[in-house]
Amino acid sequence: MYRAPVDEIAFALRHHAGLSQVLGDGVFSHLDDDVLDAIMGEAGRFASEEIAPLNLSGDREGAKLANGAITTPKGWKEAYAHWREGGWNGLSAPEAYGGQDLPLVVNMAAFEMWASASVAFALGPTLTMGGIEALAAHGSPELQKRYLEKLVSGEWMATMNLTEPQAGSDLSTVRTKAVPEGDGTYRLSGQKIFITFGEHDFTDNIVHLVLARLPDAPEGTRGISLFLVPKFLVNEDGTLGKRNDVICSGVEHKMGIHGSPTCTMVYGDGGAHSEVGTGAIGWLVGEENRGLNCMFTMMNNARVAIGAHGVGLCEAATQKALEYARERRQGKAKAVASEGAVAILHHADIQRELLTMKALTAASRALVYSCALAIDLAHANEDTEKKKYWQERANLLTPLAKAFSSDNAVEVTGRGVQVHGGMGFIEETGAAVFYRDARIGTIYEGTNGIQAIDLVMRKLPQSGGQHVLSYIGELSEQVDAFKASGEATAEVAARLSWGLDQLRDATVFLQEKLQAGDEQPLMAAATPYLRLFSIVLGAVLLSRGVTHDPEGQSPLLRFYAENLLAEAAGLKDRVIHGAASLDEAAKLLWKD
Amino acid sequence: MYRAPVDEIAFALRHHAGLSQVLGDGVFSHLDDDVLDAIMGEAGRFASEEIAPLNLSGDREGAKLANGAITTPKGWKEAYAHWREGGWNGLSAPEAYGGQDLPLVVNMAAFEMWASASVAFALGPTLTMGGIEALAAHGSPELQKRYLEKLVSGEWMATMNLTEPQAGSDLSTVRTKAVPEGDGTYRLSGQKIFITFGEHDFTDNIVHLVLARLPDAPEGTRGISLFLVPKFLVNEDGTLGKRNDVICSGVEHKMGIHGSPTCTMVYGDGGAHSEVGTGAIGWLVGEENRGLNCMFTMMNNARVAIGAHGVGLCEAATQKALEYARERRQGKAKAVASEGAVAILHHADIQRELLTMKALTAASRALVYSCALAIDLAHANEDTEKKKYWQERANLLTPLAKAFSSDNAVEVTGRGVQVHGGMGFIEETGAAVFYRDARIGTIYEGTNGIQAIDLVMRKLPQSGGQHVLSYIGELSEQVDAFKASGEATAEVAARLSWGLDQLRDATVFLQEKLQAGDEQPLMAAATPYLRLFSIVLGAVLLSRGVTHDPEGQSPLLRFYAENLLAEAAGLKDRVIHGAASLDEAAKLLWKD
């Protein structure tokens, strides 16, 4: 069973992501070292003892729909109640609404633990967190007053309603309609699909944030507005009023995250459930036709959270495989004197497998926490220059954190199955569920292909291309400092520098294409470039821990540098040369 | 729905694997071009029309156990009956027992198609094929007479009973007992787990091939014998007699291949089912204590067959994703004039994804067919030198065919899910089932880690290390011939030669370690070396098709050479430098 690696997480926060220095600078008024350790310890306990035991049974039972109502797996509702009573839901929410106003990076470390314990369980609160951010940033004072406190306490939960059958990665074709009633409210109608926790029994009310189109709104993405549509209307005194005209009409049968209900939501069909007639009553959030911008407020942080989920899955799968490899005995190993068979962890092939898992987990964690901390620093800084600097850093790291970590979750959970041999394929063992659950992380909140395109098309050009180059320069300085510290072997240091050279070359190449407006090679190179960036960045981030704990940190960094980093050679080659064959070869794809 | 790519398969057989030249030499008396095309066409029709429609429902229903009897999913039993009536079961079985005595390579091409249609369905016949081989090679004339004809016709099916709870990758600890009765029979007792199609309703009888230990047999692998244990004893006249003392006591709840029953088999518990008292009655196959050798006869070809399954999964997943990408419309593409959204296949990122899938499928196919053809040529050649040459080639290629193809099946089916976006995660879409089914291919019939160790420890030393080096030399000559043909661009040719250089360097490095008896770096390097060998070999095999069809074959080869082959750089580096950090880093794995 999962045991939260509290010390590793705290170390990664402090030294890989750099929270230690930020705490020293006194940027976060609510956080010091003691508070950090206390929170991590308590979150780890809750995740390990109260959530993790529900994961496998939740996977087996799944979320069930009957008459528009979802029943979550046994024990989940109670665990959620206990979780929110612990104050976990408002960890990084505004103090004005009852939150603890702690940095996002702390919340992301907690989310890693919730996700290790059960990513299906962690998903609902992830969406609520996004909803709180969107409302806090864009909601009217009236809406904030009525909804935020209960969302922050977790008494109610929030959802994100974006996708429609014809509108997935491309939201420009959203069709759901919102008609103004003239009294400040709107009536919504339409169908949304793939709505996570769109309906459930955790809370009495559910606050849907819904993308829809006003009458006569411009076509495309500039005609989409964001609305708040509660499942039950909320009276002046905060009590629940009439049931709104929104209902869950179906729940998906999915490969994983069975405990998390993925719902089809119907707005405004005037069915028997509705106590408000036909048309779901909603309120505008932010400005008309600026809904996508508001939605991206919640989406961006949700992307980092999906990254944190990926780290959690990596960690849980690695722990499980490690436990098995220590106990399962098969074969002999030359280096081990033994009568019978030895634990498979003595076999070099298994060691390579588990160290790969551990290294990818550590790199994903370092990257996700670094991204979350950049978001925090963008918020915390008032100074325009610094704010811009951290905002651009956060923008740059978000697609990396989301995609690298969720890709690694697929890889690491797969290796976890493999280490178990035949037992890994048996559901009761509990390795398969991580693998099935991990597979959605590369898809939702923007597929990893979309993340890569975002990285190349929107993040590389930041500040005229200077932001990314100066960041690579900073990373080079860190490697130089690492060399100077005397803790780096010449081999490892050389490999880190070499990795940064590959990244710089690929970056310069893509920036030339950007300047030339030559789109095809950019789009073709996006995915390998994202991987290249991440695998190199992961190594440099891990190296930052070595000076703080040479004995504990050097061995894994060396393994990473000498086993994983060389992937960068092939990736750079693909970035630069991979697109040339594409047009001709793609013709094959249209032939029968 | 899957449509068998009959022309592609026939082309791969002829030109990637080299069957065309072999047919020209007249090595196979039963096969000519017309027969080949007819068989492929008819197998393709059967797979597409009669098996494929049963896959998704079979996954949903699964195989169900009640009172020791398994019910397979609806329609499966009838499909099997129809399949065996078509003569497919005996395609490469001995003519003397009613088989068609066609080369294994033809059968593997057919198995690719059965597996594309439903790998869970294809598994049962895969095991029967292995059983036929073991009996034909090692069974007494008496056993052959009584069992082979009905196994070849498919009236009965066979199983392989190796694994026990404590004996998986390491069979030395097999505990199942066999006690001689003095009349030529033995009484077996013990428990076997993970027995594919150990019990089912396809056939009236099931012929189990079981590893067990005689009383006073030496410990370890040299004390294991192979026995034939029928579910029902067979009378002199071939009719079924008493129910033997063997029963299925459980069926696993697995991540995939739900339609294929994975059984726990209990031998000799003297339960109510037994009509022979206590102890399952069995007959020795081959010599006493030589059971592992006999089992490897069936295991080796089963490994190639698992490779063929991997190809089938790659093909099916690629077809499905391609179909979706042609139809699903999202976003705009600069190169395409369009009012609304364009098919996602116009996006370069999706093209890269699908071409990667197509290239890995083609390379896996070329490798698996080449391996099967080598086995055929080892059988067909009487001349000692040639026989040895082809036997060593088959030995070398078997772990590559099994591991590369099953690894690629995981990767390609995963990319297939990804191309579908959110729809890929929904079970009804039918992309997820390929992904779940593929995950077992890297585990059973020897995990891919075991394949890699087999490659490095047993196959590299063949003929004092000369076999593999001369093969790499042959591949270099093929690349030179390709250059000379005028069909290769300088870029592609240079990349192929570069790839072979990486492979040669890594091979020489490992052979030095072999000579020095330095085991740890060999074991640590095994998995990346297997991948390196396969990715380079795949490119060279594909290049052999270009001179036969430059227009059709060049674009994919170029894509492969310029996008996938560069992976070899990192792999070679890992082979040579990856082991050094392992001992120190592995200490982390023992810490809490």
UniProtKB/TrEMBL annotation, chains A, B:
Domain Acyl-CoA dehydrogenase/oxidase N-terminal, first and last residues per copy: 38-155
UniProt domain Acetyl-CoA dehydrogenase-like C-terminal: residue ranges: 477-582
First-tier enzyme category under EC: oxidoreductase
Entries under Pfam families matching the protein: Acyl-CoA_dh_1, Acyl-CoA_dh_C, Acyl-CoA_dh_M, Acyl-CoA_dh_N
Gene3D superfamilies: Acyl-CoA dehydrogenase/oxidase, N-terminal domain (1.10.540.10), Butyryl-CoA Dehydrogenase, subunit A, domain 2 (2.40.110.10), Butyryl-CoA Dehydrogenase, subunit A, domain 3 (1.20.140.10)
Molecular function via GO: flavin adenine dinucleotide binding; oxidoreductase activity, acting on the CH-CH group of donors
Enzyme Commission number, as recorded: 1.3.99.41
Cofactor(s) required for function per UniProt: FAD
Superkingdom classification of source: Bacteria
InterPro entries found in the cross-reference section: Acyl-CoA_dh-like_C_dom, Acyl-CoA_Oxase/DH_mid-dom, Acyl-CoA_Oxase/DH_mid-dom_sf, AcylCo_DH-like_C, AcylCo_DH/oxidase_C, AcylCoA_DH/ox_N, AcylCoA_DH/ox_N_sf, AcylCoA_DH/oxidase_NM_dom_sf
Keywords: FAD, Flavoprotein, Oxidoreductase
Catalytic activity: 3-(methylsulfanyl)propanoyl-CoA + oxidized [electron-transfer flavoprotein] + H(+) = 3-(methylsulfanyl)acryloyl-CoA + reduced [electron-transfer flavoprotein]
Domain Acyl-CoA dehydrogenase/oxidase C-terminal stretches: 289-457
Acyl-CoA oxidase/dehydrogenase middle domain sequence ranges: 160-267
Function description: Involved in the assimilation of dimethylsulphoniopropionate (DMSP), an important compound in the fixation of carbon in marine phytoplankton, by mediating the conversion of 3-(methylthio)propanoyl-CoA (MMPA-CoA) to 3-(methylthio)acryloyl-CoA (MTA-CoA).
PANTHER family documented for this protein: ACYL-COA DEHYDROGENASE (PTHR42803), BROAD-SPECIFICITY LINEAR ACYL-COA DEHYDROGENASE FADE5 (PTHR42803:SF1)
Family note: Belongs to the acyl-CoA dehydrogenase family.
Protein name: 3-methylmercaptopropionyl-CoA dehydrogenase
Organism encoding this protein: Limoniibacter endophyticus
